[in-house]
Protein 1
Amino acid sequence: MQIIELFKYLINAKSETPDDGGLLDFIAKYLQGYTAVRIDKNGVKNLFIYKKFGEGKHLCFAGHVDVVPAGTGWESDPYVALEKDGYIYGRGAQDMKSGVAAFLQALKETKEFNGTLSLLLTSDEEGPGKYGTLEVLKYLKANDLMPDSCIVAEPTCENVFGDAIKVGRRGSINGLLKIQGKQGHAAYPEKSLNPIHQIAKVLEKIAGVDLDHGDEFFAPSKFVITDIRSGMQVTNVTPNSLEMMFNVRNSTKTTTIEIETFIAEHFKEMDYTLSLDQTAYPFVTNSDTKIVKDIDKAIEEIAGVKTKYSTAGGTSDARFIAPCGVEVIEFGVKNDTIHSINERTTAKEVEDLYKVFKRLIEIY
């Protein structure tokens, strides 16, 4: 197959989380000469496939074949790749079957490499992620197969192809704050303690507030309120309690300790309980590492663009790979239609991404 034919084949496989749509079996056969290991668990399909060409470093390409549900309102079948006016439409076009196609074709065509090349693929990146990349990493650690460097081919570019790579990601801390009041009749507010009135006094001091100043890699950690619930949906009873949910996409400058202090400062006069759950930790790969320098060079040669380093956006499976001591970055096509109706990318971006990965392999 050529790169665009391969890309369309991947889109045509309906692989909504945690279904792989048969793609992992296909990929294992497509990369003849590579050793394939399936690490499936609890309905999640995982594949690690590798080839040792020489005694040098181990370069891994990582990603996911699963996609979010298509939803309704598409102008074409989301699971039949449509090429029109230079664009290719289909669920997963940007996130991230373009990336999978690009590194899969680059590896298939590689004949020489002074080291080990590998792919790490899961069918559960868009879901809970508990039995996906994490399980593969356990296997790699146990079998002394952990890579030196890794590229996750998530869509990273902002305005033009090649203009941004992710050298890190912010962490993610979810919080649940419960305020205890005293229920009563709305006509006798003096006999109750209304938690809505209590929280109203501090909302402007916490909503959307920056918890740190950020740095050269990270934007400030922001306190984002996502849900407030209280009462019984009646007008004559003051509520007994209130629950507020929030999220902080944190830089390396803010931890759960700083959040606990922040909450205590503003809610010290209230009867509250706080629970925090850190689902991802912030990380950054130094700009002077080999993988960053090499991808820089490949992008400039192929796309004619000097890329910038970013840590913006949500989380990816890179958050699991970085703590293993692997130098990890992300690079893929432009990110402007992921998870949306009529998701699309350009054929040229897919071709250029494949060329960048081929050149990276040569340089690395």
Protein 2
Amino acid sequence: MTEIDVHLHVWDPARAPYDWLGPGLAPIDRVMRFPDVRPALRAAGITATVLVQAADHDADTDHMLDAARDAAV
């Protein structure tokens, strides 16, 4: 059976601005990539994900598309 995480965000503040992200959200106030979440996904038995934008602008869209292209759960 395929187990799907239907709402996964990745982000990289060096590639795109995220107005909602900041020191008040430690420990996630950092780059969040698929390799960062992959162990938790595998431990939960997740075999697929749906990537969702972390911000509504072209820079994040470009980052999201690159991340999707480079990742496999």
